[in-house]
Amino acid sequence: MSTNRPNKPRTILLDNAAIGALLNPAHPQHRRLMAIAEAQRHERSRKRNVSLGVPLAIRVEAKWDRTKPDAAAVNRLPLHDFPLTAKSTNVAARLREQLGVGLSVPDAHLGATLHETEGPHLIYTSDEPYVEAMVGNLGLTNVTTRLI
Amino acid sequence: MALKGKDRKKRDEFFRLIEEGQDAPAPTSSIRVPENLRKALRIAQEMGYTATASISDAAMAGIRAELEAAAYRMVLDEHYQEFPHARPDTAQIAIALAESRNDPLAEQHETIRRAAEVLQDRNPQHATDPDAVLLFAAGFQAAATA
Hints:
The structure holds two protein chains of two kinds. By secondary structure, chain A is an alpha/beta fold. Chain A is built from six helices and five strands, in the order βααβαβααβαβ. Chain A has helices spanning about 15-25, 30-45, 55-60, 85-100, 105-115, 130-135; strands spanning about 10-15, 50-55, 80, 120-125, 145. Chain A has a five-stranded parallel β-sheet. By secondary structure, chain B is mostly helical. Chain B has six helices and no strands. The termini of chain B are far apart. In chain B, about 20% of the residues are buried. The model of chain B has no long low-confidence stretch (mean pLDDT about 85).
C-alpha cells in the first residue's frame, strides 16, 4: 500500500485482477470485492458522492461483457464505465509514447482515466508495485493503491 | 430474496432504465422546492460551501445516489441468494469502507474485527452498520494509544 495518504478518494478504479475477483464467485478474493461493493452501497445510501468504476479498455482486457445473459447477478453492479474518448485516447497514446511499449493499452487507459476523473483516486489491483510505478512515472499525486 | 417472474421483469426494467443514463430524453418538468431551500442554496453557493450549480443538479444527485444504492442492494441480494458464501461480514465491509475513505484504520484489520465482535455482543442493533464498527474501532485505537 502506498504510504502517501491523500484525502478521501472521489474516484475508485478496479484493474483487471480486481474485475476477475469480482465476477468469479470461486475466486479467493471474491468476498473482498463484495465487501468493496457493500461499502459503496453504504456510501450511496448516505448520499456520499464517490465514483466506482472501470476504464473500458480494462473491461475489454478482462473480457467483461455486461450484456451476457447467463452471467451472475453481480454482472449488473452499477459500476461506472470510464470511456476511451478522443481526449483520453490522446492522453493514453501520449503515455505509451513516454513510457514505451512496457505500458499496455489497458494500463494507458487507466492512466488517462486518472488524468480525466476527479481525484483523489484509489485503485484496487493485484500488482501494487507496478501500478504505483506507473502512477509515479505519470507524475500523478493523490493516488492510493490497495491490494485485492 | 429470490425474485419471482413479475419481480424479475420489474428488476430488468429498472436496470434497463438506469443504464439508459444521461442520454435519455428529459421532459420539461419543474421540481417543487420550498423557496427557503432555494434561497439557502443560493447563499451556500455564494459563500463557496457548495459546488452544486442548481436545485435541479442537487435533486439529480440525490436521485442518482438513491437509485444506485437500490441497484447495489438488488444485485447483491440476488447474488447472495445464489452464492451465500460470497456475503462478506460486517468487519470486511468496515475494512473496505475505511480503505475507500483513506481512513488510517484501514490498516488495523484486527482492531476492526474486534470492534465488530464487541458491537455484536453489546449493541447488536448497530452491529451491521460499518460506520458504527469503525467508530468503535477508533475508540479502541484511541484507548490503546492513550
